[in-house]
Design goal:
With 122 residues, this protein is mostly beta strands. It has 1 helix and 11 strands. The strands form 2 sheets. Strands 2, 4, 5, 6, 9, 10 and 11 form a 7-stranded mixed beta sheet that branches. The termini are far apart.
Length: 122
């Protein structure tokens, strides 16, 4: 019932910035909370950030605090991940996620996008 499509990934140098976008379609009101996971080659998927419908509640994994900012524009059904001061260890496929609460988005979201590749060179 909900489709998620990520965009904005690419190849950048360490210290650069990228902004990822996730466009949601379908019955988006059924999954008000959204977020981002990432997966590096050979590693498990890792929670990155989550945001509530109202943007009042935001959550970040420790490794990205102070560098990444999650935001959303509900009129556009879009969530963003602004990534600054990128490091090689940020290299991964980034997935947009959605579910009924930020708790679910952080721990086991039900909806996933196809992913967008972010590569940070040193």
């Amino acid at each position: 019932q909900v489709q998620l499509v990520e965009s904005g990934g690419g190849l950048v140098q360490a210290g650069a910035s990228l902004r990822l976008s996730c466009a949601a379609s379908g019955r988006t009101f059924s999954t008000p909370a959204m977020g981002w996971f990432r997966q590096a080659p050979g590693k498990e998927r890792e929670f990155v950030a989550a945001i509530s419908w109202s943007s009042t509640n935001k959550y970040y994994t420790d490794s990205v605090k102070g560098r990444f900012t999650i935001s959303r524009d509900n009129a556009k059904n879009t969530v963003y991940l602004q990534m600054n001061s990128l490091k090689p260890e940020d290299t991964a496929v980034y997935y947009c996620t959605a579910d009924t609460s930020t708790t679910r988005v952080r721990t086991g979201p039900g909806y996933w996008g196809q992913g967008t590749q972010v590569t940070v060179s040193s």
